[in-house]
Design a protein that fits this description.
mainly alpha; 79% helix; globular
């Protein structure tokens, strides 16, 4: 049992922190892997990245699933576009898993930390420019938009397979800036994409040799994340403004990047 080697105290701490992440990240169209992975890297010392990422995929899946459910009840999920983007992302998923299970632990951590810094910095840039959000949701798109969508969705799948994230760091900006959706609609649609791609990535890890899947941890912690995701996204749709959601996201991502960088420096 993983509990014996990791310690009950560590498991409880991870459960509390992962639940808190799900509460807020379910409002962002993100799986939460940006924080799930650093949290487990910090408290589950005996696990390496290729063991942590499948666990993060379980958490990201239920976070995205809960967000999809609550957003769809408000009519904020575009199922056709989300399904098309997920189909493209399946190609990238396999490449992402191969990357994480093949290259060194150090390379994976450096790539992950770099991703976090770039994403949070881009959001700060948009806030400083006071870039206005779109207010509509187009019903048709040009060939250029479709091609861009396919390309970025492959990247989304790659990131999901690599890092155990929900892919929203790429798919939310894609849906907002390329397809010109208003933010809440983009978040709901991104959640659908992640809810499809994360279990696909998990399956590839299961089939990959040399990866230890901690099923006991997944069975205990995943329901906690799912419950907090449902509660958080339901509350957030009623209470949180878009700007507040973005600020929460940026703070969390920078914190995660700091933890990952420190772990590299003091290994």
């Amino acid at each position: 049992m993983a509990f014996e080697s990791l310690g009950i105290d560590s498991v409880i701490i991870v459960a509390v922190l992962a639940g808190a992440v799900a509460f807020f990240y379910s409002n962002l169209g993100l799986g939460g892997g940006q924080l799930y992975v650093p949290i487990m890297d910090l408290f589950f010392i005996s696990l390496v990245m290729k063991d942590i990422v499948p666990l993060s995929l379980c958490f990201a899946f239920v976070t995205m699933l809960s967000a999809t459910y609550t957003h769809s009840r408000k009519g904020l999920v575009h199922f056709k576009l989300g399904s098309l983007l997920a189909a493209g992302g399946l190609v990238g998923v396999v490449g992402g898993v191969m990357f994480t299970t093949t290259v060194s632990e150090w390379v994976v951590k450096v790539a992950f930390a770099s991703l976090l810094v770039v994403v949070a910095t881009k959001m700060i840039y948009d806030l400083r420019r006071e870039r206005k959000d779109y207010v509509g949701c187009p019903t048709s798109w040009s060939l250029r938009c479709r091609l861009a969508g396919v390309g970025v969705s492959i990247l989304t799948g790659f990131l999901i397979g690599c890092f155990g994230v929900g892919g929203g760091v790429v798919s939310v900006p894609l849906i907002i800036y390329v397809f010109r959706f208003e933010p809440r609609y983009a978040i709901g649609t991104s959640a659908l994409v992640g809810a499809i791609l994360t279990p696909a990535a998990f399956l590839v890890y299961v089939l990959r040799e040399g990866v230890a899947i901690n099923y006991d941890l997944a069975l205990v912690l995943t329901p906690v994340v799912f419950l907090m995701g449902i509660i958080g996204s339901t509350w957030g749709l009623k209470k949180l403004r878009t700007k507040a959601v973005k600020m929460i996201f940026m703070g969390g991502v920078y914190l995660a990047a700091s933890e990952m960088i420190l772990s590299l420096l003091f290994e």
